[in-house]
Amino acid sequence: MTTTAKICPSGDERVKLFGLLLETNARLSRNLGVTLEASCALPLAWFEVLLLLRQSPEGHLKMNQIADAIVHTTGGTTRLIDRLEEAGFVSRRQCPSDRRAIHVGISTLGDEKLDQALNVHLDYLEENLAARLSEGERLTLTDLLTKLMATKTS
Amino acid sequence: MTTTAKICPSGDERVKLFGLLLETNARLSRNLGVTLEASCALPLAWFEVLLLLRQSPEGHLKMNQIADAIVHTTGGTTRLIDRLEEAGFVSRRQCPSDRRAIHVGISTLGDEKLDQALNVHLDYLEENLAARLSEGERLTLTDLLTKLMATKTS
DNA sequence: AGACTATAGTTGCCTACTCAACTACTTGTC
DNA sequence: GACAAGTAGTTGAGTAGGCAACTATAGTCT
């Protein structure tokens, strides 16, 4: 009762898991993106950058750190930061110790925007994450994803 | 020793989990995309569609089903299928019961390409998924993600 | 010091997407 | 059976991001 050999791999448990991972993420980001856009006029990518900057211990990051964290190329990141800077949410400053590098810091305006967006985001998470996964499950998920990311080669 | 109030939400466990989810996925897709592109000259989006078509019970799907599954707009999907069709991997046919609808089916060429890509994908999964997560962990992860996607509102 | 390699960031060109407006068909209502 | 409302897919215009080539600075080796 085997369907032809080539059918098998597409039904593989790991293939399915991977597909699920892709889909989950696509839906979550799309949804959050739409929500943020609608309520704060803030593109998801902007939100990611602002959040990242706030979380950074020194309050600023270099272009390549941002690029890596949001998984964009440095070229794409340059343009993204251009737009954020033009909107007044971040600012570029020369890095004192390396003249090639640039420090991107969040501005007061960006800070306010982020607060606003975080409120929306928290509501969103409450509705879409906390409502579906218990705290234990969330911890497990965090753990599993962390393992998946190990070595960042993934 | 609280830093100002506004710092808190950005450190929220759920915010972090969400960020991790975004990042994990971005890295995984980017990596697989590069791998597939390099070894099969097959863009990730094309792979997704081909896989989807093979997994579909009737061997074909309507445009809007594809759009939904890969989380694109119907506009974007039209163009994506245009390219796949031009490459000879899929074909459009009139749906007999609804003259607005179109059935997209995989071609022989597409089938072969998919086999080739699946080999690469399986190696990739072996290296990046199976090596990091035990079977039990993979099952748990599948379970959690499924819960997250429940109702598809997520 | 001088030369070679590596790294940080920007830019031009291109592709793939979104959004909104459109056409064509279907379904429901009277 | 005709008209309104909804649904499937396509198209034009706009945008964000990738790639590869470039500039400028840093580090390394002799």
> What would the principal axes of the Cα set say about the shape of chain A?
globular
The multimeric state of the shown protein is: homodimer
Give the class-level CATH name of chain A: Mainly Alpha
Taking all residues together, what is the mean pLDDT of chain A? Answer: 90
* Order of strands in the sheet with most strands of chain A: 1-3-2
The overall strand count of chain A is 3
Our count of helices of chain A gives: 7
Give the helix/strand class of chain A: mainly alpha
Specify the CATH homologous superfamily of chain A.
Answer: Winged helix-like DNA-binding domain superfamily/Winged helix DNA-binding domain
- C-alpha Rg of chain A (nearest Å): 19 Å
Quick take:
Two copies of one chain form a homodimer. Chain A has one domain (14-135): Orthogonal Bundle (Arc Repressor Mutant, subunit A).
Keywords:
homodimer, 154 residues, mainly alpha, Arc Repressor Mutant, subunit A, 7 helices, 3 strands, globular, disordered N terminus, DNA-binding
Structure description:
Two copies of one chain form a homodimer. By secondary structure, chain A is mainly α. The first copy, chain A, has a single domain (14-135), classed as Winged helix-like DNA-binding domain superfamily/Winged helix DNA-binding domain (Arc Repressor Mutant, subunit A, Orthogonal Bundle), CATH 1.10.10. Helices cover 68% and strands 8% of the residues of chain A. The first copy, chain A, has seven helices and three strands, in the order H-H-H-E-H-H-E-E-H-H. Chain A has a three-stranded antiparallel beta sheet with strand order 1-3-2. In chain A, strand 2 and strand 3 (102-106) form a beta hairpin. In chain A, helix 2 crosses helix 6 (108-130) and helix 4 (63-70) crosses helix 5 (74-86). The longest helix of chain A has 28 residues, at 13-40. The radius of gyration of chain A is 19 Å and the shape is globular. Chain A starts with 6 loop residues before the first helix and ends in a 5-residue tail after the last helix. At the A-B interface, helix 1, helix 2, helix 3, helix 6 and helix 7 of A face helix 1, helix 2, helix 3, helix 6 and helix 7 of B. Chain A binds a DNA duplex (30 and 30 nucleotides) through helix 5.
